[in-house]
Amino acid sequence: MYRLRDLLIAVPALLLLSPLLLLIILGLWLSQGRVFFFQQRPGRYERPFTLIKFSTLYDAAPGADEYADQQARLTPLGRHLRRFSLDELPQLLNVIRGDMSLVGPRPLLMAYLPLYTEAERRRHEVPPGITGWAQIHGRNDLPFKTRFQYDLWYVDHRSLRLDWLILWRTLRQVLIGRGVYADAHTTSPPFDGTN
Questions:
Q1: Can you tell me the distance from the alpha carbon of 95 to that of 78, in angstroms, rounded to the nearest whole number?
Q2: Fewest CB atoms within 10 A around its CB: which of 45, 98, 108, 189?
Q3: Is the dihedral of CA 145, 109, 129, 169 positive or negative?
Q4: C-alpha span between 100 and 81 (Å, rounded)
Q5: Cβ(8)–Cβ(16) below 8 Å
């Protein structure tokens, strides 16, 4: 049922949003030359997949800490895309391919896998999502440990009804742009196994 729901929403959404997507692609290509950002992320059962997003950051200087000043590396268009989470729209392709679901724990970095506790690893028992229970409770404002608690609650209480609630509240939260940035970062600071 979840897979069918995902396809019934993601495919029409991709078609309906195609004019906007084409405008974003053109804007990114003209303004910064690079349109997409690809990165390996852990999916369900920790199987890696390639996540796709719109590119929103300038490259970090050679040898620089890429997390040190992400706000300064935001491209002008990237700032607006992040503000309304439009950089996440290409993940509809991940949903159609079956790498992700519309709702589930956000897929984090492969490098974090050895840092999880056994309980935290359970967040990979369900497909990762474009949005999730943690995202509607603070997004990047939440410490990782709190996010993981929300993720595990979702794993234990997953239902189609809960997913519809999350999708509705996500839409509302995106429109007001709350919790997108965490301090000086465009995303959260790196997870070190404790924070």
A1: 22
A2: 45
A3: positive
A4: 21
A5: no
Residue 19, in any domain of the structure: yes
pLDDT at site 3 = 96
> Which structural domain range is residue 63 located in?
2-176
Residue 93 in contact with residue 52, Cβ under 8 Å? yes
- Total domains, the chain: 1
The structure's pTM equals 0.89
Q: Where are the beta strands (DSSP E) in 55-189?
A: 101-103, 129-131
Residue 186 falls inside a structural domain: no
Query: Residue 185 falls within a domain, yes or no?
Result: no
Among 42-46, 57-61, 99-103, the range scoring the smallest mean pLDDT is 57-61
Q: Using DSSP, state whether 8 is helix, strand or coil.
A: helix
pLDDT digits (tens, 9 = 90+) for 102-121: 999 999 999 999 999 999 99
Q: Which segments within the chain are labelled E, that is strand?
A: 36-42, 48-54, 101-103, 129-131
Q: Which residues, including other chains, have CB under 8 Å from residue 47's CB and lie 6 or more apart?
A: none
Contact of 121 with 46, CB cutoff 8 Å: yes
